[in-house]
Write a structure and sequence with these properties.
Distance between the termini: 115 Å
Helix content: 55-70%
Largest sheet: none
Oligomer: single chain
Number of helices: 47
Structural class: mainly alpha
Radius of gyration: 45 Å
Strand content: under 5%
Low-confidence stretches: 1-77, 88-98, 109-114, 839-853
Shape: elongated
Mean pLDDT: 82
Number of strands: 0
């Protein structure tokens, strides 16, 4: 914008009294609503009345007297410009401006622009002045605002008359009507910077013209300048500026203009409230938005369907479903019809909050509201069903889409594939994937979804096969695809293949990200290649890949797992100094745990104290690690002291912390204390997990209290906790020790019926128990079953079978198994040696060996 203030310094004594100025600035707008856009053909100022200015019109007697004094009526041709100016400046009241203009424009030597305006300035009391200004400024000869204002300034000094603010308002008026926008802006700026009061009506129209001409930035700058002096304008001004800023996405400005206007007591219209609510919804500040909606209703205004919709969408985004549903009811109750956007948004909100039933209930009501679901509606519900694991319902909705002729998108396919994988329906996922591939409805995300799941599940070979299929389909792998396979091969231990993929992706123009480097580093750490892992970190820094806290913690954790906790501590110091890494409580927990596993409990405690000195408050995991260490070192009292410290510092014990104490008491055989901690856990509102129940069951079995052990098994089942292999193995072991073979076999059969397969420990318990009960044939069958399943028999099983055969007197089989045991590198226990060397057994060992040959 041009600024005239610097080039036209006019002192304040040239202006008339501030009383007149004040009247101009307080003039109210007589325009109709400015919320509608202004067209270039629309007249701008025609509705602003003369009465907006102070009434200074001359009476008819004065006009007649003045007319008789004017030499212009004689149409002299020999007057100089100076003569005209001098004559005009002495006239207090004169004829109509248009009559003078007709004469003035015919004089070739006369400067029609400035001098005509001087005339108009001196004839301000006459009627029809605005139309004269409009005619004058519209003239092609009329100069720019800088020239005119400078001329007026010079004239005021030359003829010693005060400048009247009305003349500048009329000049501004003329420039706006003539569509001379730059001149209008310059005129306004000069008036503003020289404290010449302006009509709010003219300000409003000037802003409107700027907005119509896509000069929003200029309009905002001008309005902000005016706001800086406390001038807000009227309701139309504020609403117009809020609307313009809203369309430009400047929600902060919309909210600011609304707040300032309301604080100033400006009477705002419904449009202003609507813009404000819309801005608050985008922020989002649903509380404030809903308050404004209530205010609108209190004023008797009915908010539009669109603004209700925006508010409902915002509430759902903020997970405030209660308020969203209330707004929906309010919208319908005030006569605004339900629409599909609101219905779909509410369904999504219900799905996100896990209330799939309510979402499907809203779906059923669509027909009642006269609405038909679209692709977005179906997609929202399919996503909700997949997240909840209701795959049957998801596929029903998918089928409805096709039946209703709604086009299926690749997004729907990917959503269903993810749902199937989450629900462990791998065959269904592949079936859907293959059908979609035939229809061309798969993309790189479809492949990545499957390969990611396969790689995490350890099935990297199948993932590699899928990679080949992707290439055949003409779909190019992306960085995420490479990262998936690199992860899969690293988990499998094939770091060489993972590294070759890393080299390939670079060759194809992909830049490795922090995930790529972290996964590869972790892969090298897993196979003991610590140096290579650390070299990769240096490479990542060299390539200026931003490192995350997860990466730093991974390096520190892996060093600790490799027994290099001291190296991990120095590495942490380096990360903090060189890379500005700020460790978390988890970082220190890793080091404390590493030191404890290396047997440096005292050093671990010093690191624990160091945490506090550096301002890190230990969390529940820190205390659990230390309590576990004290329990394992038979310092249960210190573990209890640590528990007291936790409570005093306001750190609540979690299930793992309680479990650590329970395990410590159970291993000591102190089941009374273990039961007390178990009840504390329940009273804290926590639910014991399978590990805690297994610990309690094992604790009672070790004390030969099978009845109490079975009571905890019963509590488990009552709480819906499914027994795992460890539970069954422990119970079977306890029952066999008490000689309750039938009950033990019943648990074994129950375990098999649930699809839980025995491991080496389970077989050992069963074989040992069967041998003691003289069920050698059954024990031998289980022994063979282990061989068939590829499970390696241990010395306990051999010792049990050998002892069983000796008891039966089947020495040849006992010695055969003994030799087999030695061939496998297993060591017989003391009982086996006693059987072999006991003189009470006839024939002797050597004689028995001969029988085997």
């Amino acid at each position: 914008m041009k600024t005239l203030a610097k080039c036209l310094p006019i002192s304040s004594h040239h202006f008339r009294s501030s009383t007149i100025h004040k009247q101009f600035s307080q003039s109210s707008s007589t325009f109709s609503s400015l919320s509608e856009p202004l067209t270039s053909q629309q007249p701008i100022l025609e509705q602003i009345p003369e009465s907006s200015f102070p009434n200074q019109s001359a009476n008819s007697t004065d006009l007649k007297e003045a007319n008789s004094q004017i030499p212009i009526s004689q149409n002299p041709t020999n007057l100089s410009q100076s003569d005209v100016i001098n004559s005009l400046s002495s006239i207090k009241i004169g004829p109509s401006a248009s009559k003078y203009l007709e004469w003035a424009e015919k004089q070739p030597e006369f400067s029609v622009g400035v001098d005509s305006f001087v005339l108009l300035y001196n004839l301000m009391g006459l009627k029809g002045q605005k139309s004269a200004v409009k005619q004058l400024v519209s003239s092609q000869k009329f100069p720019d605002s800088t020239t005119v204002i400078q001329g007026l300034n010079d004239c005021s000094k030359r003829f010693d008359f005060a400048l009247n603010s009305r003349v500048f308002n009329y000049l501004l008026y003329g420039y706006i009507n003539a569509r001379r926008i730059e001149d209008a802006i310059c005129c306004f700026d000069w008036m503003f910077e020289n404290n010449i009061h302006f009509m709010v009506s003219y300000l409003t129209v000037l802003l409107r013209v700027l907005l119509v001409n896509n000069m929003t930035k200029e309009a905002v700058e001008l309005y902000d300048k005016v706001l800086g002096k406390g001038i807000v304008g009227n309701g139309d001004t504020v609403g117009m500026m809020m609307g313009a800023c809203s369309k430009d996405g400047k929600c902060t400005e919309v909210e600011r203009y609304f707040r300032i206007a309301r604080d100033k007591g400006v009477k705002l219209n419904p449009a202003a409230y609507t813009w404000a609510v819309g801005a608050l919804c985008l922020k989002p500040d649903t509380k404030a938005a809903c308050e404004l909606l209530m205010e609108m209703k209190d004023k008797g205004w009915v908010p539009s369907q669109g603004i209700y919709t925006k508010a409902i969408v915002a509430c759902v985004k903020q997970k405030n479903m209660m308020e969203a549903l209330r707004l929906k009811d309010a919208m319908v109750s005030c006569g605004r019809p339900m629409n599909l956007v609101v219905a779909t948004t509410l369904m999504k909100g219900c799905c996100v909050s896990g209330d799939l039933e309510s979402a499907l209930g809203l779906f059923v009501k669509l027909a009642e509201w006269g609405l038909s679901p679209n692709r977005v509606t179906y997609s929202v519900l399919i996503d909700g069903c997949c997240a909840k694991g209701s795959m049957e319902q998801a596929f029903e909705l998918y089928d409805q889409m096709t039946e209703n002729g709604i086009e299926i998108s690749v997004y729907n396919i990917n959503s269903l594939i993810k749902g199937c994988l989450k629900a462990q329906l791998l065959e269904k996922a592949y079936e859907l994937f293959n059908k979609a591939a035939e229809s061309g409805l798969i993309d790189v995300i479809s492949f990545n979804t499957l390969t990611s799941w396969l790689c995490r599940d350890g099935n990297v070979d199948e993932a590699w096969h899928l990679w080949g299929k992707m290439v055949k389909c003409g779909i190019k792998p992306d960085l995420y695809t490479y990262n998936n396979l690199i992860l899969g091969y690293c988990k499998k231990g094939n770091v060489t293949m993972a590294h070759s993929l890393y080299v390939e992706m670079i060759a194809k123009g992909f830049k490795p990200n922090v995930v790529t480097f972290t996964v590869l580093m972790d892969g090298h750490f897993r196979i003991g290649e610590v140096e290579k892992a650390l070299n990769l970190f240096d490479e990542m820094v060299k390539q200026r890949v931003d490192c995350t806290d997860y990466t730093y913690n991974t390096i520190i954790s892996r060093l600790c797992r490799h027994g290099q906790t001291s190296h991990a501590r120095s590495t942490l110091e380096n990360f903090m100094k060189k890379y500005k890494f700020i460790p978390s409580c988890m970082t220190y927990n890793i080091i404390v745990d590493g030191l404890i596993k290396e047997g440096h409990l005292d050093t671990a405690l010093s690191v624990y104290n160091e945490m506090g000195e550096k301002g890190f408050s230990p969390n529940v995991s820190t205390y659990t690690i230390l309590m576990d260490a004290f329990c394992k070192s038979n310092n249960i009292d210190l573990a209890l002291e640590m528990q007291k410290e936790m409570i005093s510092k306001g750190v609540k014990l979690d299930v793992a912390a309680y479990g650590t104490l329970i395990n410590g008491f159970c291993k000591r055989g102190d089941m009374e204390s273990a039961c007390r901690v178990f009840h504390e856990l329940c009273e804290a509102g926590l639910a014991p997990n399978i590990n805690i129940y297994n610990t309690m069951i094992r604790g009672y079995i070790n004390l030969n209290n099978m009845e109490a052990a079975l009571s905890y098994h019963e509590k488990m089942t009552e709480q819906g906790i499914i027994c795992d292999l460890k539970t069954y193995t422990t119970l079977i072991d306890g029952l066999l020790k008490e000689g309750k073979l039938l009950s033990a076999l019943e648990f074994y059969a129950e375990m098999l019926a649930k699809g839980i397969r025995p491991d080496k420990i389970t077989y050992t318990v069963l074989v040992n128990g069967l041998c003691k009960k003289g069920k050698l044939e059954n024990a031998r069958d289980l022994f063979k079953e282990m061989e068939e399943k590829g499970l390696t028999q241990n010395s306990l099983i051999y010792n049990a079978l050998i002892a069983g055969y000796f008891r039966e007197g089947n020495l040849p089989e006992a010695f055969r198994m003994y030799d087999e045991m030695l061939e496998k590198g297993l060591t017989p226990d003391k009982m086996t040696f006693d059987f072999l060397m006991n003189a009470n057994f006839k024939p002797s060992y050597q004689s028995a060996k001969k029988l085997l040959t």
